[in-house]
Design goal:
Oligomer: single chain
Radius of gyration: 16 Å
Shape: globular
Strand content: under 5%
Number of strands: 0
Largest sheet: none
Order of helices and strands: HHHHH
Length: about 100
């Protein structure tokens, strides 16, 4: 079943990136495996957090590091709080996942 209606959906983007990696033979990863049940936002946080740790940086304020300033500017007060709470929950879950993977390695 094709996805003609949604050409820019996240799943289609991920599939095309995977296909390009397989075609070029570059399917190695520089980062530990991402948890399978992670959302797209959690995946972005995971990869950015890994890059920061790899560079030796510590995350003191995850909201300032991972929040989208443009998105925060156009949200109402309640939506901002919801967004920040979700961002913090995603950060904590991905930090925990990354800690457990790095600990095993």
């Amino acid at each position: 079943m094709s996805n003609v209606k949604h050409k820019k959906c996240p799943m289609r983007t991920l599939a095309s990136e995977a296909k390009a990696r397989l075609a070029s033979g570059d399917y190695r990863r520089d980062y530990p495996p991402i948890p399978k049940n992670a959302t797209i936002q959690q995946r972005e946080i995971y990869m950015k957090l890994y890059e920061l740790r790899k560079g030796g940086e510590k995350v003191d304020n995850p909201i300032a590091v991972f929040a989208d300033e443009n998105k925060l500017a156009c949200l109402s007060h309640e939506e901002k709080q919801r967004y920040i709470m979700q961002l913090c929950a995603d950060y904590i879950s991905m930090r925990t996942a990354l800690d457990s993977v790095e600990f095993k390695a």
